[in-house]
């Protein structure tokens, strides 16, 4: 029994309700939207020449993140909606930069529109789960994660994570995430560095 806590640190946000617009890919109230165009994604795709050419041509929007105004601070639970446009760079499907959390906090994704793939890597093992509306993807502690649009329409998902997680983008930028996702006649292929297919995750193993 600890009773109520009156610490100032626990009083940054008052209770509120947010509204998800799955079609528009927004959540309200919202903080400033983050947008990632081809010009912002230097080095992300295997075909850097194609990425640079696309950036110089029409500089398409690849993805955007609309977040509620909850700070990324310990004890808070921020959430946001990411929308990845359909498209590819040299056959590699549009994706997020991807990151690993600074502290090994887990995260939950809820698919809201379209079809996507949640790619995961723990430094040794690589896995992925198929995402669609109402599918909940679980990111276990310590696993780097990246999202990919594998469909013909925008892929959207709600992300909910501990505010103390922190976001490390450098590790993936330098070491990769164990696989790349490309267009294929059957839809998409998830291939490791040797070109071998990476099997999908097979469910919880508590
Ligand atoms: C945050 C969560 C997502 C991503 C978003 C964009 O922990 O995983 O909200 O930030 O999907 O991806 P990225 O890799 O550019 O942050
Ligand atoms: Zn994350």
Distance between the termini: 29 Å
- Work out the strand percent: 35-45%
Fraction of residues in helices? under 10%
Unreliable segments of 5+ consecutive residues:
none
| Computed structural class | mainly beta
Give the number of DSSP strands: 17
| Rg over C-alpha atoms, rounded to the nearest angstrom | 18 Å
Mean pLDDT over the full residue set? 96
- Gross morphology is globular
Largest sheet: 6 strands, antiparallel
What are the bound molecules?
Answer: D-sorbitol-6-phosphate, zinc ion
Helix-strand pattern? EEEHEEEEEEEEEEEEHEE
Strand order of the largest sheet: 3-4-5-14-9-12
By DSSP (H or I, 4+ residues per run), the number of helices equals 2
Describe this structure in words.
It is a single chain. The chain has 206 residues and is mostly beta strands. The protein is 8% helix and 37% strand. The protein is built from 2 helices and 17 strands. The strands form 6 sheets. The protein has a 6-stranded antiparallel beta sheet, with no helix packed on it. A 3-stranded antiparallel beta sheet has the order 11-10-13, with no helix packed on it. Strand 16 and strand 17 (187-191) form a beta hairpin. The longest helix has 10 residues, at 48-57. The chain is globular, with a radius of gyration of 18 Å. The model has no long low-confidence stretch (mean pLDDT 96).
